[in-house]
C-alpha cells in the first residue's frame, strides 16, 4: 500500500539529528532544576524505540561483553556492529534490538554516559531501524498502556469514594483491566474486621520483595516531585499492584513485579477460606514494616527458603489446604494485562499459568538440594 | 521506589507544581524560559498520572496555542505535548473540542522532522468515528502518501501506519488518483527557508 519502499531495516545507516547529544540547559531556575543536567527536549513515543544505538564502544573485541551488559536490561533480539556508521577513531558503533521497548529504555538509562572498557558509551534510540510493524506495535502498546493506567486511576478514585460511603464489595467491576480493584474487593469482602492490619501487612510484604533498579528517568528533572497517586496507595488501605510507571511511562518494573509475585500467588485463596487464612498468616508472619529498601538477593532467597520450610511444617501438622500454598500475608491478585481481545486474553492466561508452574520449581529445589547435600556428609 | 525519600507529597503537590509551571509560562517574557517550561509540561504529559492535572489546567489549549507560533521550538514542543496527551481518551476529547485538527495538520508542513512526526501521531490518536472525515481528509492523505515514500525511515513508517490503520483502501486509492490527476494539494510540503 501507499508505495512504501521497504528498505531493509539493517541497511546503511545515516546520522540523524536525534542521535546527537544535545547541549544541556544551564539556565533553569532552581525549582525547575533536575537531579541531572538535561537538554531542553520533548520526549514522545516517536523518539523511543526498542532499537538502541551504542556509540563509543572501544574497538578491542568486546562485543560479547557489550551484549551481555545490554542483556542485563532485557532480552536482546538482534545486534550487530554498524561498520558503515561514522565512528570515532578506535571505537565501534553497535545496533542492539531489544525484545521490548521497556528494556531498551532501561538499557539506555543505565548505559548512556557510562564508561565501558575505557570508552564512554553514548546510547540513543534508533527508531529509524524500525519496520512499519515495529512502529505500529509501539504506538498500540503505548496507547494501551496509557489507557490502562488512566482506567486504573479512575477506578482507584471511584473506590476511594466507595470506601467512604459503604464497604460493600463492588462486584460490578470487571476484572479485565485491573487486578488491583478485584484484589481490593476480595480483601474487603472477606476480611472487613481485619482491614487495616491486612492491608499494612500485605503492603509490607509486597514491598519486602527486592526492588528493581530505579526506573529510568530520561527527561523529567523532577525526581523529587512525588507521583500523583501516591496518596491513594496509602489511604486506600490496599496494596499497590498497580503497575508503577517510571518517568518515561515504562512498565518494566511492573512486569517484573508480576513475575516475582507469581511464585507466591500461585493460587488465589477462595473467599471461603479467606478469613481464616489471613488471620493465620498474620500471626505467622509479622509484617515487615520497613520502608521499601534494597534487599540483597541472597537474603531474599534465604527468607524464601525459611518460609518454605515453615509451610512444610504446617503441612506435616495436617493443615493442608489446597488454597494454602500462600506464604505470608495475602497478596492481591496479580494485575492482569488486558490484551483487548478475548482469545489473546486466554492465551495470555495460559502463558501466565505456565510461567507460574515454571516459576514455582526453583522454590522446591533448594529444599531438595538440602536433603541431597546432607547425605554425602553422613557418609564421610 | 517511585518518589524520592523525604519528599513526602501528594497529588495536590504535583498539581501545584504543574500550576506553577503554567503560571511561569504565562507570566514570563523570556522565550528561553518559555521553551523550558513548555518542554517540561510536554514531558509531564508523557506520564499518564499527570493527565488529569494537565486537563484541569487546560494545558491542551496552551499546547494548541503554540502551534501557530513563529518560534519553531515552541511548535515542536507544543505538538510534542499534544502527541503525548492525545494518547489518552479524555485528553483526546478535550483536544477535539478545541477545533485542533486544522492546527495539527498545519504542523505537517513543518521543516522539522520531529514536529511532523508528532503531528502524524497526534492525528492518528485524534482519529475517531466523528473526526475521521477531518483527520483523513484528501489533503492529509496526499501528504501521507508523499511521506510514505520519504527518505526518512521514521517518516515513511509512521505515514504508512497512518495510511494503513486510519484510512480505508478506497480512500487511499482515491487520494492517489487525485494526486496524479487534477487536485494535488501542497499540504505537508514545507515552504523554502526564506
TrEMBL record, chain A:
<dbReference type="GO" id="GO:0005654">
    <property type="term" value="C:nucleoplasm"/>
</dbReference>
<keyword id="KW-0508">mRNA splicing</keyword>
<keyword id="KW-0507">mRNA processing</keyword>
<comment type="similarity">
    <text>Belongs to the RBM48 family.</text>
</comment>
<dbReference type="InterPro" id="IPR035979">
    <property type="entry name" value="RBD_domain_sf"/>
</dbReference>
<feature type="region of interest" description="Disordered">
    <location>
        <begin position="149"/>
        <end position="210"/>
    </location>
</feature>
<dbReference type="GO" id="GO:0003723">
    <property type="term" value="F:RNA binding"/>
</dbReference>
<feature type="compositionally biased region" description="Polar residues">
    <location>
        <begin position="190"/>
        <end position="204"/>
    </location>
</feature>
<dbReference type="InterPro" id="IPR034264">
    <property type="entry name" value="RBM48_RRM"/>
</dbReference>
<keyword id="KW-0747">Spliceosome</keyword>
<protein>
    <recommendedName>
        <fullName>RNA-binding protein 48</fullName>
    </recommendedName>
</protein>
<dbReference type="GO" id="GO:0008380">
    <property type="term" value="P:RNA splicing"/>
</dbReference>
<comment type="function">
    <text>As a component of the minor spliceosome, involved in the splicing of U12-type introns in pre-mRNAs.</text>
</comment>
<dbReference type="GO" id="GO:0005681">
    <property type="term" value="C:spliceosomal complex"/>
</dbReference>
<feature type="region of interest" description="Disordered">
    <location>
        <begin position="361"/>
        <end position="380"/>
    </location>
</feature>
<feature type="compositionally biased region" description="Basic and acidic residues">
    <location>
        <begin position="153"/>
        <end position="168"/>
    </location>
</feature>
<feature type="compositionally biased region" description="Polar residues">
    <location>
        <begin position="169"/>
        <end position="182"/>
    </location>
</feature>
<dbReference type="InterPro" id="IPR039599">
    <property type="entry name" value="RBM48"/>
</dbReference>
<dbReference type="GO" id="GO:0006397">
    <property type="term" value="P:mRNA processing"/>
</dbReference>
<keyword id="KW-0694">RNA-binding</keyword>
UniProtKB/TrEMBL annotation, chain B:
<dbReference type="InterPro" id="IPR042462">
    <property type="entry name" value="ARMC7"/>
</dbReference>
<dbReference type="InterPro" id="IPR016024">
    <property type="entry name" value="ARM-type_fold"/>
</dbReference>
<dbReference type="InterPro" id="IPR011989">
    <property type="entry name" value="ARM-like"/>
</dbReference>
<protein>
    <submittedName>
        <fullName>Armadillo repeat-containing protein 7</fullName>
    </submittedName>
</protein>
